[in-house]
Amino acid sequence: MLDTSTSSTLELLFNDGLGAPRKITVKDPIESLSAEVAQAAMDKIVETDIFIDEGIDVYAVAEGARYVTRSVQDIYKAEV
């Protein structure tokens, strides 16, 4: 019998100081976060200003958060 596996991540979406998209990915997140909780956490990341790369704020503007679910179904697997 072949396996099917599913994994979930939380993506926190930002723009940097130049307007380029940036992302923080959290593996195995709590899957019941509200929009308010996600926004508050992202606002804290923006406010800290500790993620600076060559003078550019890496997480300057919070853009959104989303859950991403990935499903993998094996259709062939060599026997060992």
Protein described:
There is one protein chain. This protein has a 3-stranded antiparallel beta sheet with strand order 2-1-5, with helices on one face. A two-stranded antiparallel ribbon has the order 3-4. It has one domain. By secondary structure, the chain is of the alpha+beta class. It has 1 helix and 5 strands, in the order ββαβββ.
- The overall number of domains is 1
Total count of helical runs of at least 4 residues? 1
Distance between the termini: 14 Å
Q: What is the typical, i.e. mean, pLDDT? A: 94
Whole-angstrom Rg: 17 Å
Helix/strand structural class = alpha+beta
In helices, the fraction of residues equals: 10-25%
Low-confidence stretches: none
Output the helix-strand order: EEHEEE
According to DSSP, the number of beta strands is 5
Strand order in the sheet with the most strands: 2-1-5
Which shape, going by the Cα principal axes? Answer: elongated
Quaternary state of this entry equals single chain
**Strand residues, percent:** over 45%
Largest sheet: 3 strands, antiparallel
Characteristics of this structure?
1 helix; 3-stranded antiparallel sheet; 18% helix; single chain; 80 residues; alpha+beta
Please outline what is shown here.
Helices cover 18% and strands 45% of the residues.
Helices and strands in order, then pairings?
Blueprint: E1 4-15, E2 21-27, H1 35-48, E3 52-53, E4 56-57, E5 61-73
